[in-house]
Amino acid sequence: MGFMQKRLSLLSFCRVALCLVTSLVVLTGCGTSSPSSGPAVLRIWYSTDDPVERTWSQELASQFQQTHPAVQVRMVDYSFEDLNTKLQLALQAGTPPDLAYVTPRGPGIPAYLGAHKLRDLTTAARSGSWTSKLRPGLLAGYNQPFGFMGARQGAVMAVPTSLAAVGVLYNKDLLARLHLPLPSSIGAFERALTRAKATGYTPIGMGNADGWLGDDWYLTLVNALASPHQLAPEFSLSRQFSFRQQPFVQAAAILRRWSQRGYFTQDFGGLDAQEGIDQFFHGRTLFQLISSSENPQIQQDQQQTGLPIGVFAFPGMHGGSIIPVSGYLGWVVPTAGRHPRQAIAFIDSLLAPSTTRLLMRHGVLPAATALATPNTGTGWQQEYRVALDTAQPGVYLDAAPVANLNATMEANVQLLLQGYEGPDFLVKSLQEDYTSHKGSTARIDGEF
Question: What residue ranges define each of the domains in the chain, with the CATH number in brackets?
Answer without folding.
Answer: 38-163+328-378 (3.40.190.10), 164-325+381-436 (3.40.190.10)
